[in-house]
Write a structure and sequence with these properties.
Layout lengths: L1 H21 L18 E12 L2 E13 L4 E11 L5 E12 L2 E6 L1 E5 L3 E5 L2 E4 L4 E4 L3 E5 L2 E5 L1 E5 L4 E5 L2 E3 L6
Antiparallel strand pairs: 1-2, 2-3, 3-4, 4-5, 4-6, 5-8, 6-7, 7-10, 8-9, 9-12, 10-11, 11-14, 12-13
Length: about 180
């Protein structure tokens, strides 16, 4: 009797193991009440520090961060950084998405630097590895008293150069 029970339990155990090996992995993609995907992690008042050579190179503060398997959504973004020349820069945006090393600033984006350079626009993307700020949407670029408006741009942050398409500029030169 005991041997039959042991054989039955062993066969049941191996049957379950075979079922679990054949069955596809189970993943959870939970949907909320409104039908949107629920984030894996949700953070409030988050700060991310980037440290280079013993100094803080940048601080990104967000009022809310939602982490999904493929991307991160940031709300109320305040990104402060220090350039190689020692200038402080600050980028503010209502909403951003971080995906595959590119930060997509979705709405109401403003960038300003200590030397008077400023940039405003929507749908601005920043490539974290190449340090390139770009957009295919209308923008406003300011430097001191000069103002340029255009339809798209690419700003090489390392070199400090901007190339833009379809621009209208008003350049004011100070008195010598």
């Amino acid at each position: 009797m005991a041997v039959k029970l042991l054989a039955y339990c062993t066969a049941l155990f191996f049957g379950m193991m075979l079922f679990l090996i054949i069955k596809e992995p189970y993943t959870i993609n939970e949907l909320g009440i409104n039908g949107n995907l629920v984030p894996d992690i949700e953070l409030f008042n988050a700060k991310n520090y980037q440290i280079k050579e013993g100094n803080i190179a940048s601080i990104v503060t967000s009022t809310k961060v939602e982490r999904y398997p493929q991307l991160d959504k940031l709300y109320g973004v305040n990104a402060e950084h220090k350039t190689d020349k020692g200038l402080n820069g600050r980028l503010l945006s209502d909403e951003a998405i971080l995906q595959e090393g590119i930060l997509y600033f979705m709405q109401n984006t403003h960038y300003e630097r200590d030397d008077g350079i400023g940039l405003e626009g929507d749908a601005i993307q920043y490539n974290l590895k190449e340090k390139i700020l770009s957009s295919d949407k209308p923008f406003v670029f300011t430097q001191a008293k000069s103002r340029s408006e255009g339809n798209s741009f690419v700003y090489q942050m390392k070199e400090g150069t901007i190339s833009a398409q379809t621009i209208h500029s008003v350049i004011q030169v100070g008195k010598k």
